[in-house]
Amino acid sequence: MKPGLVLAVALSGAALAGCYREKREFQSPPESPARDPARMSALAPGASPPLKPGGQPTPDRSALEENAYAVSQGKRLFRWYNCSGCHSNGGGGMGAILMDDKWRYGHEPRAIYASIVEGRPNGMPSFGGRIPDDQVWQLVAYVRSMSGQLRKDVAPSRSDSLGGAPPENTREKEEPVPEQGASGAR
Q1: Is the pTM of this model over 0.85?
Q2: Helix-, strand-, coil-residue percentages of the chain, each rounded to 5
Q3: Which of 20, 103, 159, 186 could form a disulfide with 176 if both were Cys (CB 3.0 to 4.6 A apart)?
């Protein structure tokens, strides 16, 4: 075998392996019981988080924060589910500001997941049972990118909205400051 051919085969194998940062998941993980129609009416702010059969909590998929494709999907879903209607492209409005360092219910991925799935008092509706878990985790990753919590090479690079917010990958990291007397996610 020629040395050039060996090198070409080795390089193509490395290129095919790719990296997780750009991995695209076209098949969603198995649905959680949060999608069970019998549970849909029971989900409300303050209700318990979705459980898998056997009483296990929904798996933590916060590793999607390392995947640029998942974060960009979260940005698309943020627009499609009209999160901007309340959160005004992250700048606040009726909903909480998502681009600053103040996190009333916590800045951790599980806390933000809980806010989306369970809802929060005074306005954040419960989306548990209405949005698939993999999409909720993509939204979580995007919400964290809005305040600079993700690596710059993973965060979306431009803002496609008319609002003109600076691209997520150019924002400085905000150090979350929990408000007094509150715990959980936004």
Answers
A1: no
A2: 40, 5, 55
A3: 103
